[in-house]
Each structure stands twice: as C-alpha cells, then as structure tokens.
Amino acid sequence: MGIMVIKSNRCLATILIALLLAGSLAACGDSTATAVPATTSAAGVVSSNRTPIATTAPAVVTTEAAGTAKGKQAVKLALSYIPDVQFAPYYVAQDKGYFAAEGLDVTFQHGTINDLMAVVGQGAIPFALASGDEVMQARAAGIPVVTIATQYQKYPVALAATKGKGITKPADMKGKIIGIPGQFGSTYIGLKALLASANLTESDIKLQTIGFNQREALLQGRVEAAMVYSMNEPTQLQKAGVALDLIEVSSVSNLASIGLITSESIISSNPDLVQKMVRAVTHGLKDTIANPDAAFESTIKVAPDAKGQDPDLQRQVLKETVKFMSSDAVKGQPYGYSDPKVWDNSQKFLFDNLLLRTKVDSNLAFTNKFLVADLGKYGQ
Length: 380
Known about the structure:
Shape: globular
Order of helices and strands: HEEEEHHEHEHEEEHEHEHEEHHHHH
Mean pLDDT: 84
Helix content: 25-40%
Distance between the termini: 33 Å
CATH architecture of the largest domain: 3-Layer(aba) Sandwich
Radius of gyration: 19 Å
Strand content: 15-25%
Strand order of the largest sheet: 3-5-4-6-13-7
Low-confidence stretches: 1-60
Oligomer: single chain
CATH topology of the largest domain: D-Maltodextrin-Binding Protein, domain 2
CATH class of the largest domain: Alpha Beta
Structural class: alpha/beta
Number of domains: 2
C-alpha cells in the first residue's frame, strides 16, 4: 500500500495521491523455510518464495474458470500480483461454482495495475482487493471506493523477535533495533500503532530499513525485532525451528484490513451485480474458514502456482491466514462484516499519525448492506 510520512502538507497530498494511483497494500500469503527475496502485494501481503515483482506494471496474469458456461456476465476482480493462498476465498467461490450460480463469469486479474484505486473508483475494473487504510487514503484523495465485504477481521501484522531478546510487549521496543521493509505499507502502519500503544515514537527506537528480508535480518542478528506479516515469516521461521516472541498489532489496536472493494458508481448503478459478488465471495469466505484444507485444494485447482515450492508450508500458511478472517468482536454478524468501530479507529489513527492528508467519514468507506445473513454468521 505504500504510505510515507511527509512533513509538508502539500508534499503529503501530492505523494499520497501518487502512491494511491500506483495501486500499491493486505495481507498474507505465502512462504518457504529458506531465505529468499520477498515482495508485497497490493493487499499488503508478502509472497516470499517467488521472483520479486517490479513496482512498474508487469504483464497481467488472468485466471478464469475452466468451462465457464456461456451467457454469464463477465466480471473482472483484481487480486494483485501473483496467485497465492491469501486469495483462497475467491478461488473457493470459483471452484465450487458460487460465482457461476450467480450468473457471473469472473476473471481474476493478477499483476500490478497502474492507477488501481483510480481505475476501480472510475468503475473500469469493477472489483478489487484493498486494505481499509488504502480505501480511506483513496477517499481522502477524492477517489470514491468502498469496501463491500471484509476478508480480514484482525490486522495481519506483528512484531517478531527471536526468543531471548526480551521483547514481549510494545514498551520493550524502546532503544531496540527494529527492522521494517520501509516507511510504507501495512508493516509501517503496524509499527506506528505498536509505538503509539506504548507512548513511544520512532525516535525512541533504532529504526532500520531491511526491505522484505525480515527472516534473514532476524536470523543474522542484524535487528533485534522486525515487523512481519503474521502468517508469513512466523510460519516460515517456526517451521525451521526458530522460537519467536510475537506482538500482534491487533492485540493493541485493531485496524481496518483487507476486503473486497468497488466504486460508489457501481453500487448506485448496478447494486444487483454488487449483491451477487458479495454473496459468492462471502460464501467462499465461509467455506475457507470452515475447512482450510478443502480451501487449499480448491486454491491449487484454480491457481496451481499458489502451492509454491513447498505445498505443505503453503497449506499451513493458509491455516494461519484463516485465523485472521474471524474475530470475537464480530461474532453473530454475517460473513464479510465491516465493524464500524474498527473503521472509525482506523480513520482517527491514520489522521493523527499524518497518514491521511484530511479527515474522511469512515462510515462512507464501507457498507454492510450487501451481506447475506442466511449464509450464516461468525461463531456459528
């Protein structure tokens, strides 16, 4: 999601808009136990066992349902970057025919899409994945995007330290060498949230930019702790036998995370299409939470590359990912529910930390009106 703190308000406005229009954060996807370069998806998710993705737009890869019946409405869904287990609910919806049952022929569009938020805001690509902070930044820049179904109920970012470093709570970060990919994206937002919870600032720690090499930096002792995606590096390191202390961002301040987005214009002009997409996606979300193993099988049928170099590890990553798809805070609510309190908290946090150039109405950044209660509710 590429977010940077700029002191000048005019520069902040200009750069935030540029970053938004680059279609860059969510998430959480994939892993190997060996140290290799990592990349971040537009959903804020690290994919660490594949060739790094360029920040300029590469060739777009599409994944379509095999044998889709004619006569269905063609719909594009931008999932960002490469096929990955993080997108399991959408692959499940396709594999199990939930899109087809709604009369939709959905094409998944992978790869960096230039001006993604603007493109979605204009309705050129009707649906995409984006984080809550990304949506609010877009709206602050005048881009009318809206989250219509939330995928992650808990912000999937954490501070990881190897055992013995004495870093078990946010206050322990003071004076420590903390690694981050850079001053952008969900890991940076997560760092700011952890610091704020302990009344600390960046000047209270020794901040080190390490790129997407958190595992190597931790194992080599170059940093004492690093900001990671909760289901990625921890899963990789623990499989390699490395014991960790984790401080989840959601344990101190839950922030609006990744969800399905569309434009205000599509919501107003074609609510039936939005309803169909939400119904199919939330059905896939429900199935993924209920049975991650079956969801993994659906994932690799629709997107074989998502199994990566280590399918067993990818299966475990998906199981860890599923833990962030539900929360006690939304128990009894329909699948895909967006918690107004979380969105309000996110807007305030982003504005207070200069990550929004202007306040936005958080209640306009999401809607729950398309959720389908008869598909079931969290905790049931």
